[in-house]
Amino acid sequence: MVSEREYDIILWGASGFTGRLVAEYFLSQYKDQDLKWAMAGRNQQKLEEVRSSISGDHIPIVIADSMDSASLDAMTQSAKVICTTVGPYAKFGSKLVASCIAHKTDYCDLTGEVQWMRRMIDKHHAEATASGVRIVHTCGFDSVPSDMGVYFLQQEIKKDKGVYAEHVKMRVKAMKGGMSGGTYASLSNVMEEASKDKSIYKILFDPYGLNPTDSPKGEDKPDLAKVLYEEESKSWIAPFIMAGINTKVVRRSHALSGYPYGASFKYDEAMMTGGGFSGRAKGLMTAGVMGIMMAGKPGSLLKKVTDKVLPDPGEGPNKQERENGFYNLKLFATLPDGSQVQGRVTGDKDPGYGSTSKMLGEAAVCLARDKDQCPDVAGMLTPSTAMGDAYLARLQNHAGLSFNYFK
Ligand SMILES: NC(=O)c1ccc[n+]([C@@H]2O[C@H](COP(=O)([O-])OP(=O)(O)OC[C@H]3O[C@@H](n4cnc5c(N)ncnc54)[C@H](OP(=O)(O)O)[C@@H]3O)[C@@H](O)[C@H]2O)c1
Predict the structure, then answer these.
(1) Of all protein residues, whose CA lies closest to atom 21 belonging to ligand 1?
(2) Residues 144, 271: contact at Cβ < 8 Å?
């Protein structure tokens, strides 16, 4: 049990683009409730400016720099939960994870950096499990809708049909949003690390790259890398940029839960781009844009051009773009007898920031407040394995997500 701490939650990275949105969310959603939280970062003046711009002058400020272990330890000891938006996580996050485990502080973040998660799992899973600490990566658009969507759908199918689906396909039907400089910096850092250490590609291309070491592998293949027509969704489908993270997280959840859906459970993700000639053309364009973003090697002209075009750290989609954003994800499930059912996950606001800031905020509150309703587990976890039904309820009641099952 976590002893009495000064704060329920410390939000580290509150001066950044996404951190500021999470701070605004806590202020609006938990204004009249007894949530003890603080804004943290490395720069007092910047934090004060953000705090005053969001009319949160009563919110305490905590200073902690990723390079200063003592400041991290002081921070992690004073909170039940650290909620961090300081990225790239591979550059700035490792000492924080270690400090949280050392001081028995639960943790959630927004990382999508698979190579870093692998390192953290290998280094800390046993220790975090033994210490009873819950470290939860990927509490944003990657990978909450996928991970919680599969968790939700499988429970509904089990209740309705008495079995679990043996294959689930997530298809992005529609989404609208933009990218922040912090996300681009994190993506660039993955490619930079991979260009220096080729073993990282092995992790990125291994469908089971986040599974427990030596755990049995299933039948999943690497993520879709081409454009093809799919009967089931009656649409052309194209690679989805987040699939490389989400599919691994869903498979880790399955492994950590003891393989309830069976050893041959399969999961994949793709984007639906519509039917006919225009669907195919849109698919090819989607694949092309993704290819360009991934192909820009550090120092290359292509990388210099994308660096110029995409936002700098601290920048991202404006309020109107966030408010007008949304996502609609379809889930196609095949049961052991070959019959099919569908599910759907939707979110209001843009996926990457408007919705992500609410998903992360609710993950932090869930870890801080709902421990009794969460699964009794610890270690390097995923959203569904760490928080299960308690988080599902919060996402639907507070964070603008909906989960549907269609028989
Ligand atoms: N999974 C998802 O769906 C999702 C969605 C959105 C974002 N993200 C991830 O979230 C992270 C943040 O994105 P963002 O756009 O908010 O980035 P950002 O605007 O660049 O913010 C980064 C934050 O990190 C802080 N920081 C940098 N170096 C630090 C250090 N040495 N010590 C302490 N704090 C430090 C910055 O503080 P200063 O203000 O002092 O510079 C700032 O508060 C990225 O890794 C991004 O990929 C993921």
Answers:
(1) 16
(2) no
